[in-house]
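User: Sequence in, structure out. Go.
Assistant: Echoing your sequence, followed by the structure tokens.
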Amino acid sequence: MARVYVSIGSNIDRTRNIRLAISRLRAEYGPLLTSMIYESDPVGFEGNRFFNLVVGFDTPDSPGTVLQTLHGIEDLGRRTRDGVRYSSRTLDLDLLLYDDQVLRDQGINIPRDEILLYAFVLGPLAEIAGDRRHPVEGRTFAELWAEFHNPGQEIEVVPFLLPSSDSD
């Protein structure tokens, strides 16, 4: 079993889409370790504020299979793939980590570069996996988060009720 961490973001119909993602991930992978939900401004474009979180789970699936599952969940959230990198999203799920592996081929980029670039990824990841080490940097996510500074990337915890599950 591999420990996987996935970021979830939405700035279109945010509540519905975050709940959809959590429900589908639970149905596919079982109990999830979930961060709090954070709100942040979009980076690289003008648009509505995002809800973001990170979840962790264990799976026997390969990284490629996990990515296919994530794309299927995005499709359920009516995600469009129009090629515009920085734009509003109904649902954006990114495979951040797959155990301690470093993979850079066939469309797989693990660990995701965004971990070190964006507060809305690193903050929630440090919350639920602070003692884990970045597979390339060799430092814990808590250490990386404590030193992260980008005044244009504030994140705020928002009250949010996730779909309930007896197994969490």
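User: And one key feature?
Assistant: Residues 25 and 100 are 21 Å apart (CA to CA).
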